[in-house]
Amino acid sequence: KSEKIAIFHKTDVSKWKELISLFDKTKETFGKIDVGLDKIVINNAGIVGQLYGMLDDSLEEPDFARILNVDLLGVTYGTKLAFQYMKQNDPQGGVVINTSSVAAFHPTFNVAVYAAAKAGVVNLTRSMAQISQLFGITVNAVCPSVTESGLTSHSIGILPENWWSSVNFVVDACFKCIYDPKTNGTIFTVWYEGIKEESFENYHPVFQAMLQGQRQ
Question: What family does the entry list (predicted)?
């Protein structure tokens, strides 16, 4: 068994073959898709893109495709590959955590394309959770607000204090996804004051009946 606890493998998550290479390298190094606690894949890569991009009057092609490819297509590819590799485990199973954003739930005109991609991540997560437990897999999403990190340090003092969430709260939300096997299809938003589990009770009766049948 490898004594390594982490490796770096340069990957463009929007490129299918590069993601396959990442998964293969992980399996080659560690023996399985495993970080020592559980079989875990966290699809975390994301970019915001140009602020107010939808209001830009330039006729230059915007970078919307790049935002959607990284933030939504990359998560979709990563989730699909996680299922493929986790189904090969003996026994089958694993944990998939997709990073979305509170922007998925709230109109955010200054980063509208980013918000659209993150909303897609939420519904991708909930959709895959309908079938995931047949393979012993759980799929959940963590949706932070602006989080303290090196990537956001330039915004300190600019954004209101109550817009920020702690990295510790984000980690706590991930731990909920990892350690509670009943947590599946759950969407956690992470705010200044802590973690909130989002409720989705507005199903059409046809879908509500289908979901109730799955839960029985």
Answer: Belongs to the short-chain dehydrogenases/reductases (SDR) family.
Q: What is the pTM of this model?
A: 0.86
| Residues with catalytic function | 114
Beta-bridged to residue 142, according to DSSP, are: 99, 188
User: Residue 207 maps to which CATH number?
Assistant: 3.40.50.720
Residue-range definition of the domain harbouring residue 181: 16-215
Residues 86-113 have pLDDT tens digits of: 998 888 999 999 999 999 999 889 999 9
| pLDDT category of residue 20 using cuts at 50, 70 and 90 | very high
- Residue 143: phi and psi, rounded to 5, are -120, 90
pLDDT of residue 212: 53
Alpha-carbon distance of 103 to 11, in angstroms, equals 25
Structure tokens at 196: 């909130």
Question: Is residue 9 a part of any domain in this protein?
Answer: no
- The number of distinct structural domains making up the chain is 1
Task: Find out whether 124 and 152 touch, Cβ atoms under 8 Å.
Answer: no
